[in-house]
């Protein structure tokens, strides 16, 4: 293959002219539950700037977010936030939000959000939010 053919095959980064996705409000489509093939319980939509984005759905989700910190004179990534989503034994769905800090001995759960989509007697959408902090 000559140099021109190789150059034509090179992939350049995709440049977005719309700006940062967090600069504006975007209406995202809702998933159609009847279109789901394997009854997924949670969805994640992640935008990571120039690195790209991820959209997935699954029966359980775990997302860890790290950020750079300086500790003992050195830069490092610290996993400061964990979001875990899973189905409970009673069939309800739970999203737990946990914060980690290098000075803490234990992580701190700052939110628990629960729903019960299988409750056919519910007349309104039910989302229970518990913001009581709990050391884990």
Summarize the helices and strands and which ones pair or pack.
Blueprint: H1 3-9, E1 42-47, E2 53-58, E3 61-71, E4 74-87, E5 93-99, E6 108-115, E7 127-130, E8 134-135
Can you give keywords for this protein?
136 residues, two-stranded antiparallel ribbon, 6-stranded antiparallel beta sheet, mainly beta, 5% helix
Outline the structure in words:
The chain has one domain. The radius of gyration is 21 Å and the shape is flat. Strands 3, 4, 5, 6, 7 and 8 form a six-stranded antiparallel beta sheet that branches. Strands 1-2 form a two-stranded antiparallel ribbon. By secondary structure, it is mainly beta. The longest helix has 7 residues.
Radius of gyration: 21 Å
Number of strands: 8
Helix share of residues? under 10%
Number of helices: 1
Main beta sheet strand tally, sense and closure: 6 strands, antiparallel
Helix/strand class: mainly beta
Low-confidence stretches: 1-28
- The N- to C-terminal Cα distance equals 59 Å
N-to-C SSE series?
HEEEEEEEE
Number of domains: 1
Approximate shape: flat
Give the rounded overall mean pLDDT: 78
Approximately what portion of the residues adopt beta-strand conformation? 35-45%
């Amino acid at each position: 293959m000559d140099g021109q053919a190789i150059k034509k095959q090179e992939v350049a980064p995709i440049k977005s002219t719309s700006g940062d996705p967090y600069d504006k409000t975007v209406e995202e489509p809702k998933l159609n539950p009847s279109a789901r093939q394997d009854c997924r319980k949670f969805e994640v939509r992640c935008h990571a700037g120039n690195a790209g984005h991820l959209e997935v759905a699954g029966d359980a989700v775990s997302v860890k977010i790290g950020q750079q910190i300086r500790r003992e004179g050195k830069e490092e990534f610290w996993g400061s936030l964990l979001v875990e989503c899973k189905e409970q034994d009673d069939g309800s769905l739970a999203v737990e939000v946990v914060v980690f800090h290098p000075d803490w001995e234990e992580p701190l759960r700052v939110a628990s959000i629960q729903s019960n989509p299988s409750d056919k007697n519910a007349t309104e959408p039910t989302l229970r939010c518990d913001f009581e902090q709990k050391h884990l």
